[in-house]
Amino acid sequence: MKIEDMGTPGPGPAGGGIGDAPAAAGAGAPGTAAAAVAVAGSGIGRASLWDDAWRDLRRRWVFWGSAVILALVGLMAAVPRLFTGTGVNEGCDANDAKLGPSGDHWFGTDLAGCDYYAHIVHGARPTLLIGTAVTLFALAIALVFGMLAGYYGGLLDALIARLTDVFFGLPFVLGATVILVAFPSHGVGAMTLVLVLLGWTTMIRIMRGQVISVRDADYVQAARLLGASDARIMTRHILPNTLAPVIVVATLNVGHVIAGEATLDFLGVGLQYPKVSWGLQLNQAKDAFVDHPHLLVFPAVFLSATVLSFLMLGDAVRDALDPKLR
């Protein structure tokens, strides 16, 4: 809870405490000490939530296991040269394809004779980039419009809620498939835009609900009566007390988006050759799985491990931030 520029409240309700502050100031108390106590108390309260969550997370093997896997995948996406010296579609020779794993090709080769391990490494970048970019843009939309809808209510809330209902009714994969089929020439940017368009509804509903639950709290009313602007109230008082559940959903959402992107690639409406992604590798392997199972196994393992790590990380963060689940 944060109360800014207030004196020490009296024993009565919040309104009475605010009214007593000017009187105390007029009686010779400058209010500096009281304001310092209020600010210090606010800082302690805000830090303790995340500090307690961090202390709880450090004791969870699920958190560390997920973090290690995601760090490894993130490093593969950011600096693929640390893992392989072969570029994308480099050194491919269909006439010399050694499909099974060997000393020269740890994960074997694909049907075009390309090193499959190199494709696994380079496939991490578009998969992880789309998943994180879509979630960040959707989170920004949810924070802004969810905050406005929950804080002001009325007509603005009704318009945002009805627009959210319209997009919420669109199936994620089916809607993306229809849009991407209509615009066949697309890359990572277009994929991100389409998935953002269909993936912001859940977070904005949660953000709106959280804002509604705290907008009439005592500390918000106190800041309002002291003359704080709406922007300051929303950013300094409401946002810190509503952010935790949305962060949890955003963490889980990264895994869902990655799975959705891989599904679109597998269906042939997502990224297209010569780009490389785990979903594309699954698409190319579906017809050769019986004879060459490694073509399906390796990208499926990396994709499943990444999605599962995001989901487990989100669950761990949720449990750590919710005292009821500890």
Mean pLDDT equals 80
Instruction: Examine the coordinates and then state which fold CATH places here, giving the name of the CATH topology of the largest domain.
Output: MetI-like fold
Distance between the termini: 22 Å
CATH top-level class of the largest domain: Mainly Alpha
By DSSP (H or I, 4+ residues per run), the number of helices equals 13
Largest pleated sheet = none
The radius of gyration over CA amounts to: 26 Å
Care to count the β-strands? 0
| Classification by helices and strands | mainly alpha
Shape: elongated
Question: Considering DSSP H and I runs of 4 or more, what fraction of the residues is helical?
Answer: 55-70%
Strand content: under 5%
Report the CATH architecture of the largest domain.
Orthogonal Bundle
* H-E order: HHHHHHHHHHHHH
Poorly predicted residue ranges: 1-46
- Classified in CATH, the superfamily of the largest domain is MetI-like
Number of domains: 2
Layout of secondary structure:
Blueprint: H1 14-26, H2 32-57, H3 61-78, H4 116-152, H5 154-168, H6 172-182, H7 188-198, H8 201-214, H9 218-225, H10 230-238, H11 243-267, H12 278-285, H13 294-321
Helix pairs in contact: 2-13, 3-4, 3-13, 4-5, 4-7, 4-8, 4-11, 5-8, 6-7, 8-11, 9-10, 11-12, 11-13, 12-13
